[in-house]
Specification:
By secondary structure, the protein is mainly α. 64% of the residues lie in helices and 0% in strands. It has a single domain, classed as Ferritin (Up-down Bundle). This is 1,2-phenylacetyl-CoA epoxidase subunit PaaC.
Length: 299
């Protein structure tokens, strides 16, 4: 090889390295609000709204079980889970407010079709639905673990600062759900109710991993590096053996009939519109400035 060839080869390698560097997402916790491009901010908003909406709507449904759970301990436990989920939603909505949104725009004055939560969290509970609550919480919290672990090396520093706290609390939620799965699966009648809940909720749980229109931009910015497909497989590798271990039959994901409503794309079941109407009712009964004054904000 001539010296010219060697120099040419070195130049090509440098060019290749530069191109690779440009295609790599930013390093962990290297971005903040001031360093975001407009496209990155839109991608971050999509990610944050998914996180926040899932937690908020999940918590709204769980509050329906307060005073109705089968034991005092489970009543208190589920109330604590709902409170935690509201707190997690607040963490993510706060980040959206730092990007220019108001609380009213995030929650109270938002059109029902603009919410992007997965449909599993909006579904009404079955009439004899303690088994439904247990299965729902398990499927959701198992997915939440996968999702949060995928955010531990996020490039957005304010998001990275919050992930560890939420992960620790979600572990308690999963433990509570698994303990009740084991307890109910030991009884034939209760196991039948668990199976009915799996049949109903599993297709909706898959919507947790449905991509949005800015999925590529989310990963390119390093907000989340793992693909939704890989996360879905990790979740399936956890929940299928666990549920089957308790004598439950889990549908093959490829054979599941996908619900018409996906959630992530703004399409929802009829139950969502009733729920959203209910939890915004009090806010609509007062003028919009009153909640801001109560929070000490300027109108």
């Amino acid at each position: 090889m001539t010296e010219r060839d060697a120099i040419s080869g070195d130049a090509q390698r440098v060019a290749d390295d530069d191109a690779a560097a440009e295609s790599e997402p930013p390093a962990a916790a290297s971005l903040d609000r001031g360093s975001l491009t407009p496209e990155q901010q839109l991608a971050l908003e999509e990610l944050l709204f998914r996180l926040a909406d899932d937690e908020f709507v999940h918590a709204e449904r769980l509050t329906e079980w307060q005073i109705y759970a089968p034991t005092i301990e489970s009543d208190l436990a589920l109330a604590n889970v709902a409170q935690d989920e509201f707190g997690h939603a607040r963490l993510w909505y706060d980040l959206l407010q730092e990007l220019g949104y108001t609380e009213e725009e995030c929650i109270w004055r938002r059109d029902a079709g603009d919410w992007t939560h997965a449909t599993i969290v909006e579904r009404p509970f079955a009439d004899d639905g303690w088994g439904d609550a247990v299965v729902r919480t398990y499927l959701y919290d198992a997915a939440e673990r996968v999702r949060l672990e995928a955010l531990t090396d996020t490039s957005y520093a304010p998001l990275a600062d919050r992930v560890g706290k939420v992960l620790a609390e979600e572990e308690y939620h999963r433990d509570h759900a698994v303990s009740w799965l084991e307890r109910l699966a030991s009884d034939d009648d209760a196991r039948e109710r668990l199976q009915a809940a799996v049949d109903d909720l599993f297709p909706h749980a898959l919507s947790l991993f449905h991509p949005g229109e800015r999925e590529d931009a989310i990963r390119a910015a390093g907000f989340r590096r793992e693909s939704l497909t890989a996360m879905r497989e990790e979740w399936l590798d956890t929940v299928i053996p666990t549920l089957e271990g308790y004598g439950l039959v889990v549908p093959e994901p490829g054979e599941v009939t996908r619900p018409d409503a996906r959630g992530r794309d703004g399409t929802h079941t009829d139950a969502w519109f009733d729920l959203q109407e209910a939890f915004t009712a009090t806010h609509r009964e007062v003028d919009f400035e009153t909640p801001a004054r109560l929070r000490g904000e300027e109108a």
